[in-house]
Amino acid sequence: MRYPTIFAADSQIKFLPTVPANPLQCETFFLHANMLTSRTVAKVLNILLEHGSYSRLQPPHYLEGIIAPINATILKKRVLPAFTRIDAAGGLILSPSQHYLFILRNGFWDLPKGKVEAGETLAQAALREVKEETGIEEVEIVRELTTTWHTYYMAGQTKPILKKTRWFLMRAAQESKLVPQTEEGIVGAYWLPYEDAVEIIPNAYRSVAQVFKAVNADS
């Protein structure tokens, strides 16, 4: 079974089925699964968020948290209850000329995505969010790409948020004019050729880099 990697700012929490031979390496925080409680999960999260903050004023500081040994039961009963879950969906859109649609949100390159609303399928939510955040109309889903997880704190919530996002590869009918949804912190939306997309990935959220890697895995 493949366990999720949870992104926390520029850091990440990895779940492994066995304890690595040398887990206490530089830039690694290890927690044995026997010590797992909501409180210890919160402590790991706080460490990662503090040391892996979103800042591009200097090179990104990646800190890795490892929790092991893990299995499906431990993940379900000890890890997931420590969070408030949110399901989201989004898309990586290609134009007929093979340009990628990227948005600039809160100072970071991102892809359109958002929370799944009541009664929506994941695909419906992804298409709606793409249209709302970029103004694009003629777009269709090609296939599902990957799933990412990221966590953060939200005011008024007693638990950290854990957002599970399903990503879809989409194709636009044309390279139409884009209208960024400014009320969502989006200040720009752009069609980028592959070479430019590769250049901006280091200034994107790490989950976005995972999505971009997934769509180009076979190229």
Account of the 3D structure:
- Helix 1 (38-51) links the parallel strand 3 (28-32) and strand 4.
- The strands form two sheets. The protein has an eight-stranded mixed β-sheet with strand order 3-4-2-1-9-10-5-8. A three-stranded antiparallel β-sheet has the order 7-6-11.
- It has helices at 38-51, 72-79, 122-134, 194-200, 206-215, and strands at residues 5-8, 11-15, 28-32, 64-68, 84-94, 100-105, 108-110, 113-115, 139-152, 161-172, 186-192.
- Residues 54-59 have low confidence and may be disordered.
- The chain is built from five helices and eleven strands.
- With 219 residues, the protein is an alpha/beta fold.
- 24% of the residues lie in helices and 34% in strands.
Provide the fold topology:
Blueprint: E1 5-8, E2 11-15, E3 28-32, H1 38-51, E4 64-68, H2 72-79, E5 84-94, E6 100-105, E7 108-110, E8 113-115, H3 122-134, E9 139-152, E10 161-172, E11 186-192, H4 194-200, H5 206-215
Parallel strand pairs: 1-9, 2-4, 3-4, 5-10
Antiparallel strand pairs: 1-2, 5-8, 6-7, 6-11, 9-10
CA gyration radius, whole angstroms: 18 Å
Query: Which class of secondary structure composition applies to the elements?
Result: alpha/beta
Helix content: 10-25%
Task: Count every helix, treating DSSP H or I runs of 4 or more residues as helices.
Answer: 5
Main pleated sheet = 8 strands, mixed
Low-confidence stretches: 54-59
Major sheet strand order: 3-4-2-1-9-10-5-8
Q: What global shape is seen?
A: elongated
H/E topology pattern: EEEHEHEEEEHEEEHH
Strand residue content: 25-35%
Tell me how many strands there are. 11
Return the average pLDDT rounded to an integer. 87
The span between the termini is: 26 Å
